[in-house]
Amino acid sequence: MKCFFVPILLLLSLFSSAQLKTISQSPVFAEDESVGIQRVLLMKNGNTFYLSLTKKNLTVRVFSDKYKAKATKQLHPELGKGSSFKVKGLFDINGEVVVLVSAVENHQVVLQRLIIDGVTGALKSVDKIGELEKVSYFKLGGVAFANIPEPDFFSEALPEGNGYAVVAMNSFVSDRNKRIVVSIFDTDNKEISHAYYKSPEEKYKYMEYQGMMALDKNKLSVLAYGYNTKSSGGKECQLLLATLTKGDTLLETESLGTSKKPSEVAVARYNPVSKKMMLLELEDRTASVSIVDPFKKSVSGKIDIGSNGKSRSDMPQNLFTNEDGSFSIVYEKLSVSSNVPHIPGLSTDLGHTYGYYTSIEMEDYTVTVIAADGQEELQHYVIPRNHVRKNMMRSLAFNNAYTNFENAVDQPSPMESFNYLSAGGNNYLLLNDDADNIERIQAGKNPRKVKSLDDCDAFYYTLKGEKDTPPSDFLFGKPTEKRNYNKALFKACDYNADKKVYVVVKQQQNGNDGGWKLVWMKP
Q: Which residues form the signal peptide (predicted)?
């Protein structure tokens, strides 16, 4: 009786949850291609744009508003060293797709812009629009061991397709007032604003970018820390907010208050419902969220995430806004080991956030839903997991939020990423996991250890109800045959809130045969 009763309970829990329904799938494509870097974009004209960037090839595919294939192109731009590629932006501008790709050339990070026809997939132009200071291996040691910000580029689309912004974190330039550069490009891809994030009154030697948000189609806000060290004039530190209006060349900077020191790592998001900026920071294994009002230029609240401000045993991975104005933080429980325990970033101490690990155990996800004002925890869920990987280089905190070197050796596979979706009145956590473990979890049992994603499928958890572990279901339906698996590449997904359409790349495996396809869904 017991063996029959448990599966019945499992089925009831699955069917009672809100469903993500498939509305269309593309034919299988790119059977011989590796994972590489893949991205997808739902365009305003109804088309869906797909991009695959490996070390040697750039493939684009365009699908119509009826989800039919319209164009496929193999493009051959010269972008630099393939293992150093990062896709830093993908924007729909006037029916064209703007792709921002950073790469390393001769010890220098450069940012190139590709403009691709959103109908034919043809490459219209390639331009270098940014470059950072050349850096020696010796200086790069400062990123690993001296907490110097990693030189990098960041981008953000302006609302209504009104252009895009790019921030350059030029950590090693000698002039402190030129370490953060903010640019705004219009719908013709012309740079119309170029401003330096200057140290207020030359007070701070170091400037560290934290995040940016487009407040409207003409205004951008940028968060940064200005600080000194003991050897550079004291330990004063301030959180700064700068505003740049489209067409201007001067950032208006305000201090939001003092801090002991800049955070180790951080993620910033703009909440369009509350019209507040949220800065999730990690410092000494304690996570906190600052609620910033960019219009009043003040911090309206700061909360410690954890048990009365104590450090957590898990690490924050990403921050998401919800349809109702609340926001969610996803944590991951981690245990790591390394053969080089005495080098910072290479020890079992989770206080270090990046390193090369000979073994890393990736266990439960915890999802905390918090009210828009940050004053109340609304929901709390635990997603049990038990994965272990060998010889992996990754960030322990915010690994899901950051852009990695997806083509590089020993980097986490993009297939390891999860996704979070707030749509149709429900919130979902989507991931790849072992089907037997999902069944064990729903039956109240502990999951067994999973050593790879080879035999896994894509699932989604509907974050609702009173149980600690919410109901789950196969994202693409349960495979009908053994040795058939359907995983999702959650780095390659997009959601159109107006049309209520979600698209994601599916990796389909039928025995020894497999390939990729796009799947369009409705919540």
A: 1-18
Residue 153 three-state SS: strand
* Distance, CA of 265 to CA of 245 (rounded, Å): 27
Q: Which residues pair with 241 in a beta bridge?
A: 223, 254
Q: How far apart are CA 462 and CA 427, in angstroms?
A: 6
- The DSSP-derived string for 177-207 is GGSEEEEEE-TTS-EEEEEE-PPGGG--SEE
Give which of 104, 111, 114 is closest to 51, Cα–Cα: 114
Give dist(CA 378, CA 372) in Å, integer. Answer: 10
> What does the DSSP 8-state code read for residue 386?
-
Task: Report in angstroms the alpha-carbon separations of 394 from 48, 316, 356, 405.
Answer: 31, 14, 7, 10
Calpha distance 520→117 (Å, rounded): 22
pLDDT of 154-211, one tens digit each?
999 999 889 999 999 998 888 888 999 999 999 999 999 999 999 888 888 888 999 9
SS (H, E, C) 78-115: CCCCHHHCEEEEEEEECCEEEEEEEEEECCEEEEEEEE
pLDDT for the residue 258: 80
pLDDT per residue as tens digits for the range 104-145: 988 899 999 999 999 999 999 999 999 999 876 545 554 555
Would you tell me how many other CB atoms lie within 10 Å of the CB of residue 121?
A: 21
> Phi and psi (nearest 5°) for 176?
-60, -25
What is each CA distance from 75 to 121, 301, 398, in whole angstroms?
A: 9, 48, 32
Rounded Cα–Cα distance for residues 470 and 461 (Å): 6
The Cα–Cα gap between 25 and 505 comes to 10
CA pair distance 461, 418, nearest whole angstrom:
11
- Closest listed residue to residue 264, CA positions, set 206, 203, 351: 351
What is the number of residues in the chain?
523
Partnered with residue 280 across adjacent β-strands are 267, 289
DSSP tag of 407? T
Q: Are 216 and 189 in contact (CB under 8 A)?
A: no
Q: In the block, which residue shows the tokens 């600080």?
A: 227
Model confidence at 284: pLDDT above 80: no
Backbone φ and ψ for 326, nearest 5 degrees, come out as -70, 175
> Chain-centre distance of CA 29, in angstroms?
25
Helices 435-442 + 2-15 axis angle, to 10: 100
Q: Is the C-alpha dihedral spanning 404, 457, 362, 374 positive or negative? A: positive
Residue type present at position 405:
F
Q: Where are the alpha helices (DSSP H) in 276-426?
A: none
Specify the 3-state DSSP secondary structure of 226.
strand
* Cα–Cα–Cα angle for 420, 426, 428, rounded to 5 degrees: 25
Task: Give the H or E element holding residue 213.
Answer: strand 206-216
Q: What is the pLDDT of residue 31?
A: 59
Secondary element (H or E) of residue 419: strand 419-423
Strands of the sheet with 237-245, listed across from one edge: 206-216, 219-227, 237-245, 252-258
- 29: three-class secondary structure by DSSP: strand
